[in-house]
Automatic annotation (TrEMBL):
<keyword id="KW-0408">Iron</keyword>
<dbReference type="Pfam" id="PF02754">
    <property type="entry name" value="CCG"/>
</dbReference>
<keyword id="KW-0479">Metal-binding</keyword>
<dbReference type="InterPro" id="IPR009051">
    <property type="entry name" value="Helical_ferredxn"/>
</dbReference>
<keyword id="KW-0472">Membrane</keyword>
<dbReference type="InterPro" id="IPR051460">
    <property type="entry name" value="HdrC_iron-sulfur_subunit"/>
</dbReference>
<dbReference type="InterPro" id="IPR023234">
    <property type="entry name" value="NarG-like_domain"/>
</dbReference>
<feature type="transmembrane region" description="Helical">
    <location>
        <begin position="167"/>
        <end position="186"/>
    </location>
</feature>
<feature type="transmembrane region" description="Helical">
    <location>
        <begin position="227"/>
        <end position="246"/>
    </location>
</feature>
<dbReference type="GO" id="GO:0046872">
    <property type="term" value="F:metal ion binding"/>
</dbReference>
<feature type="transmembrane region" description="Helical">
    <location>
        <begin position="198"/>
        <end position="215"/>
    </location>
</feature>
<dbReference type="InterPro" id="IPR036197">
    <property type="entry name" value="NarG-like_sf"/>
</dbReference>
<dbReference type="InterPro" id="IPR017900">
    <property type="entry name" value="4Fe4S_Fe_S_CS"/>
</dbReference>
<feature type="domain" description="4Fe-4S ferredoxin-type">
    <location>
        <begin position="293"/>
        <end position="323"/>
    </location>
</feature>
<dbReference type="InterPro" id="IPR004017">
    <property type="entry name" value="Cys_rich_dom"/>
</dbReference>
<dbReference type="GO" id="GO:0016491">
    <property type="term" value="F:oxidoreductase activity"/>
</dbReference>
<keyword id="KW-1133">Transmembrane helix</keyword>
Length: 682
């Protein structure tokens, strides 16, 4: 057996890098390697030129780039769901990375040995303990890599999941399989001619050599087979490198960059520079070059895995929207290099208006592609072109005219508070917290009950709060997600001015859509505030003992996580704390199949609240059925849009289920008294 560290008269544990390969072949191989890398670079450059035709992108800071690279690229933090596929992807990725690093180390060893004039068998560092560990690690990495490839090939034969099944992708996987298998065969043939081979150093190669020995392969045949397979393995590996920019493998390069450049925070839209709009006369995305460079990059990052499509509520409901197909259609349009109109030619208006902007697609994408962001930018162009009609267009017109989508006068904003003591900012200038009631809480009969419950709980806890009353206007959240950026900025500017007038610092709201807008949209225009959802505040008041439950009356309760609270803001536990307290801890909060940040959409976001869908064609119907299946008598939610959509869904299903906001549930348990008596216009 060879020693790890040689003494005088002994042979050092190592191997010749280009063993059995003539010198002339080595020069040819390096020439082909340079050609492969040049082909790779040319392909990447061609893609980069396409990306650079887009609008400028804000580059994150150095520390942000490094953090995102470590977290999202190396640690694959966004790779969630589909357990088998995710495991296979990790095996393929990490196996490939280790094999690639090992190949680079071999190249460095050979180049250094040549520069230092070392003789074959006298390596610079590829020897002893390093060599032993190197061989074991690479042998194991190869097994991991091939297992991942095999799983992906198997899934393309038997799985019914929604990923693309392109012949080219199968050929790529077969190429990877061939590279891995020939690599082991080359190793086995090398060891076959080495009588001092160590089974513990190259276990797979050693087993392969034993197999070849059992077949009676002569040494001369082994040398020739080794030579031919070495070249076959090398050409396939170099061909793989050269092919990356010209196949779906490009997603590995584009995806890595997209994970570093794309905004990780959900619910954030890029603002529009109105001065630039006046100069250019364009708003939104009409052609590919109107997208940002990062968005064009993200089109090449998409590998059509279908995770976005699986989680899309519009696609589930049979609407003409597949986030996967949308991105792939845009990517194909970019590949042609033509500057054509995207609307009607590449994507239909009906497809764009189907989106609820729930961000399930963006959250599901392991490569950080945001179909929801692409859709919103495309919607902006439709709004400018006057494409939106009917009830949703009317809601925008009413918001423009009256400051709310109901079109009711500001003088009626306080009718919801009839019979309650609700101080305004003028009446209580030293308020501790501003309660943002929102348009639904002010004008919608059902949502007014939520606002009344919140006020009673705030009074019970001794919170010094105030409301804007007649001075409150819509946040513009729905207008912005529908694509009316001009209306949103007008509303945001007015509200921010009002906040400044009254020195507002802390805001509480029961609407997750208002919450998202105040947290994520308003800071883009100088509106920096501490904004909390009413579930966060009420849970805090319970924990501090400022609120206490006097009686629990719920037999069973299921909690529905609103998209813009759970997925976008990450607020999942406070509502459950409130419900557990409200039912006295005697019964569990029943969870539906999809919950937490993996919740299912009610169908009311992205302006869909204002679309006149037939009851059986509504996007949230599957969610309604899922909640009914829990068997709970009460469905609790924490969003006025969800309350409306789920209540309508339950009525359509004729299900004997109560739909309540968590504030109403807590109010009934804390203040057991009637909470009605308002008369308000629809």
């Amino acid at each position: 057996m060879l020693p790890l560290l040689a003494t005088e008269g002994q042979t050092l544990l190592t191997r010749e890098v280009f063993g059995n390969i003539p010198s002339a072949d080595r020069f040819v191989f390096y020439g082909l390697a340079v050609l492969a890398m040049a082909t790779f670079a040319a392909g990447v450059y061609r893609r980069v030129r396409r990306w650079r035709q887009g609008q400028p992108t804000v580059i994150p800071s150095g520390p942000q780039l490094v953090g995102r690279f470590c977290r999202n690229v190396l640690a694959l933090a966004r790779l969630r769901g589909r357990p088998l596929a995710s495991l296979a992807h990790r095996m393929l990725f990490y196996g490939f990375i280790v094999l690639f690093v090992g190949t680079c180390l071999i190249a460095i060893e050979h180049i250094l040995a040549d520069l230092l004039g070392r003789e074959p068998g006298n390596p610079v560092f590829h020897k002893g303990w390093y060599y032993a560990v190197y061989e074991v690690v690479l042998d194991a990495a190869g097994v991991v890599f091939l297992t991942g490839v095999a799983v992906f090939l198997w899934r393309r034969s038997v799985s019914d999941e929604s990923f693309a099944r392109r012949p080219a992708d199968r050929l790529v996987l077969l190429l990877l399989l061939a590279i891995g298998v020939t690599g082991y065969l080359v190793e086995a043939l090398r060891l076959l001619d080495n009588p001092t081979r160590l089974p513990g150093v190259s276990p797979v190669g050693w087993l392969g050599a034993l197999g070849l020995e059992s077949l009676g392969m002569p040494a001369t045949s082994a040398k020739l087979a080794h030579y031919l397979l070495w070249w076959g393995h090398g050409i396939m590996a170099l061909g793989f490198v050269a092919a990356i920019p010209y196949t779906s493998l490009m997603h590995a390069v584009a995806g890595a960059w997209n994970l570093m450049l794309a905004d990780e925070k959900l619910g954030v839209l890029q603002p529009v520079d109105l001065e630039q709009v006046e100069e250019t006369g364009t708003l939104g995305v009409g052609v590919l070059n109107d997208f940002t460079q990062q968005q064009l990059l993200s089109l090449d990052a998409c590998v059509a895995c279908g995770r976005c499509e699986d989680d899309c509520p519009a696609h589930e409901a049979g609407k003409p929207l597949s986030p996967k197909r949308l991105v792939q259609d845009l990517a194909r349009s970019m590949a042609t290099g033509e500057s054509q109109s995207l609307h009607g030619e590449v994507v239909s208006a009906e497809t764009l208006w189907s989106c609820t902007t729930c961000n399930a697609c963006t959250s599901a994408c392991p490569l950080g592609v945001s179909p929801a962001g692409l859709i919103t930018d495309l919607r902006r162009h439709l709004i400018v072109e006057g494409d939106l009609r009917g009830a949703p267009a009317t809601s925008l017109q009413k918001t423009q005219r009256s400051g709310n989508p109901w079109g009711l006068p500001a003088g009626e904003r306080m009718k919801w508070a009839a019979g309650l003591e609700v101080p305004t900012v003028d009446e209580c200038p030293d308020f501790e917290m501003l309660y943002w009631v929102g348009c639904a809480g002010s004008f919608d009969c059902r949502s007014q009950q939520i606002a009344r419950s919140v006020v009673q709980l705030l009074h019970k806890a001794g919170v010094r709060f105030a409301v804007l009353g007649k001075q409150e206007r819509c946040t513009g959240e729905a207008a912005r997600r529908m694509g009316d950026e001009l209306l949103f900025q007008e509303l945001a500017t007015q509200n921010i001015a009002t906040f400044s007038k009254y020195q507002v610092k802390k805001i509480v709201t029961h609407c997750p859509h208002c919450l998202n807008s105040l947290r994520n949209d308003y800071p883009q225009f100088g509106g920096e505030y501490q904004v909390v959802h009413h579930s966060e505040l009420l849970a805090e008041l319970l924990s501090e003992g400022r609120l206490s439950v006097e009686q629990g009356g719920l037999e069973s309760v299921t909690y529905h996580d609103p998209c813009y609270l759970a997925r976008t803001q990450g607020v999942t536990e406070p509502p459950r704390e409130i419900l557990r307290a409200a039912i006295g801890g005697t019964l569990p909060v029943v969870e539906p199949k999809r919950c937490g940040e993996s919740t299912a959409c009610c169908g009311g976001g992205g302006g869909r609240m204002w679309f006149d869908d037939a009851p059986d064609a509504r996007i949230g119907n599957s969610r309604v059925d899922e909640l009914i299946e829990t068997g709970s008598h009460t469905i609790a939610a924490a969003c006025p849009f969800c309350i409306t959509m789920l209540s309508d869904g339950m009525a359509n299903r004729k299900a004997p289920v109560n739909v309540k906001d968590i504030a109403e549930v807590l109010c009934e348990a804390t203040l057991p008294q009637p909470n009605d008596g308002i008369e308000t216009k629809e």
